Amino acid sequence: MKAISFENFSYAYPKSKVVLDKLCFDVKKGSFTAIVGPSGAGKTTLCMAAAGVVPHYFGGRSAGSVVVQGVRTMDSTMGELAKGVALVLEDYESQLVAMTVEEEVAFGLENACVDPKLISSMVQETLQLVGLAGREQQEVGGLSGGQKQRLALAGALVTKPEILILDEPASALDPEGAAELYGLLGRLNKQGMTIMVVEHEIARVLPHIDQLVLLLNGSIAVVDQPEAALRKMNAEGLFQEAIPPLLELRFLLEKSGCRFGTWRCEADAVRELSAALKEAEEVSQSA
Amino acid sequence: MNKLAPLTKLIFTVAVSVWAMLLTSLLGLGLLAVAQILLLAAVGLLKRTYKGILSLTFFAALLVLIQYALGSNLEAAVAGGLRMIDMATVFVILLATTKMQSLTTALVSQCHVPQEYAFMFTTALRFIPDFLAESKAVREAQACRGYTGKGSIVRRFTAYLALVGPLVLRAVSRSETMALSLELRGFGAGRRSFSKDVGLRLRDYCTLAGMVAVTAGFTAGRMIYGW
Amino acid sequence: MLEIKEVSYCYQQGKPVVDNVSLTVEPGEFVAIAGRNGSGKTTLTRLIMSLIKPANGQIMLNGVDTSRQSPGDIARHVGYVFQNPDSQIFRDTVASETAYGPEQLGFTAQEITASVAEALERTGLTALADAYPRNLSRGQKQRVAIASALAMKPDILILDEPTSGQDAAEKENLMRILTDLNGQGKTIILVTHDMDILARFTKRAVVMASGVKVFDGTVTELFGQNANVQKWGLREPAIMNVSRNLTKYGISPELTAAEFSRQIIGMLQGGRA
């Protein structure tokens, strides 16, 4: 079942050159996809295409299509698409529109004509989820950068979207905050939410994703399961700087003939290397 | 005052303006101003708002002096000044006793103001702290590059561009993102629900009735007694 | 030389944001200041630039007390690069933008041209000298901000999270530029919470937690203290974590993948001998 499908999709902003070039890939329902690539590769435009922002909001020229939940974005409106897809923009500060935290989270629900009696509890629940519990009456203007980013996420989550798209959602967070955020997204994904995220630090998302897409100059260079994708990036020298050190290590070891299972995080590596070293020790002892 | 519906308070604002126009005597206009100040004191908001009211009085006095200097008679000039104080003070009361969101809810659901216009105000207010923080950040960044803000008027004026430039660029970019964000969240697509309950209750109807009575009273007073 | 002596600062009454911190930075050092958001690391650098004045203590720059000086005065010796380059960019070309600082400091026209050219060269922006800054990428804009600071010819460069929001290639490029500048004698103070960058490029680390300086030493010493690193809101670099957990097999802790892989391969092949 495909949540989002890019079918030979190309796009150019008005009076500008082509930003996305014949994109062809799928995001399966319930998957967690990371989009990576250098600045200017078109990652933000890709996210906006999945939400119908492009071409509806910006105009411009497009070819091919993007199909979201069975509907071509071209044949729908942003309002309709917004019922199933939530997009959290990179500029989280300007995305917040209300005066208080409570109003901000309630905004999406009000727009969707949700019964006012239900709004308050839904808001509370969502604030709890993102770690802003109890802050309903606080003014948005007075929040820290990290809190604002979490508030923007809350505003998107409260409408219980089936598809969540985030453009660099952890940029204002320190490592602890980023780990918490991706932990939350991981949990939501296990509960069935389809998630697509643009992220510069692959190591942060690696424990949670099942698909990695590398975008270079508006085209898809790699789309595969995370480890296979990174392996290809390493082998063909594609945006190698982005390969997390852990996998850099793995690929170096593989060159010397070692073979390992899946490494999603440091613990996996420690376990497998321990086993390998122990074996080597035993072999040398018995020799 | 806090318990009245926003609509009632909006109507009150209009009513006071009508009364200020109906009354002609200095005593009447003066009493109206005093009554409003007492109202603010009664709800405990005078401390927060007195500075605003003082500046209003200052500007009104200025207005009176100018009018008098331009030839109108003193009584008419003072009446004009008092009217200004009356009509401006009621706005202070409105904004001090009503939450912004309740006000916009009332405007959109009861006065049928289009959503976009009503939200213009809340979003402008929402960005004031961000704008202040940004302006501080710009001042600091340029200060670290040697910006001093000293020198001749001309020099200072042209130098100011270093502060205004980034702010304007940033403001434009923000507003673009915000407009997009509103659409992404389904704003303006049609009907909406409202979290805040702004329905009219018994006390609102009583207050409205009271306002009608006062208006009738003032109208009669003016026609019969020349108030 | 920069000396911070027992400096404290509070925003309002209540907990100090910087609490009795002392720190000395010698010329030519490459120091990282790390800590979680809210630990006081950025506030410390703002105190150095005299954007805020310390409530207690003293900051001495080349032997002169900075409390009476303005940020503009200090800019002659210390260049500050803010986290968001959009807060300062306002001119139409990269070159004229870079020239702003030297103009304000009163350089002559010739000095300005020379200084701008050199700054653009060092940050790899010579080809973009006539570009419109607004259209540049985040990484390029950050380099413009660095060039703008360099053009004022400071001895010390302070950068607040300069790599945030940038892709991996831009980060590498930026850190290479800073390493080259350090090699040419500039003192670099880098506020960051990117542990991989800290591990690979800086030599000395200062850690702030709740306004207090809790660590000041080499990067290797820092990650030797792994229990505390977590407590201070820092993340151990992946390679360090893995190598540290394998010490019982005779592995010594490493910071880079290349070094570590050599060790492992050596161990495994030695074992099969």
Question: Which properties best describe this structure?
Answer:
B: 2 domains, C: 273 residues, alpha/beta, Rossmann fold, 2 domains, four-stranded antiparallel sheet
Structure description:
The complex is a heterotrimer of chains A (287), B (227) and C (273). With 287 residues, chain A is of the alpha/beta class. Chain A has two domains: 2-236, 3-Layer(aba) Sandwich (Rossmann fold); 244-287, no CATH class. Chain A has twelve helices and ten strands. Chain A has helices at residues 43-50, 53-56, 78-81, 92-95, 101-111, 116-130, 145-157, 175-190, 202-205, 226-236, 245-255, 266-286, and strands at 2-12, 18-28, 32-36, 61-68, 71-72, 85-88, 163-167, 194-198, 211-216, 219-224. Chain A has a six-stranded mixed beta sheet, with helices on both faces. The mean pLDDT of chain A is 91. With 227 residues, chain B is mostly helical. Chain B folds into two domains: 6-99 and 199-225, no CATH class; 118-184, no CATH class. The longest helix of chain B has 29 residues, at 115-143. Chain B is flat and about 70 Å long. Chain C is of the alpha/beta class and 273 residues long. Chain C folds into two domains: 2-235, P-loop containing nucleotide triphosphate hydrolases (Rossmann fold, 3-Layer(aba) Sandwich); 237-273. Chain C has eleven helices and ten strands. In chain C, helix 3 (94-105) packs across helix 4 (109-122), helix 3 (94-105) runs parallel beside helix 5 (138-150) and helix 4 crosses helix 5. Chain C is globular, with a radius of gyration of 20 Å. The mean pLDDT of chain C is 90. At the A-B interface, helix 4, helix 5 and helix 6 of A face helix 6 and helix 8 of B.
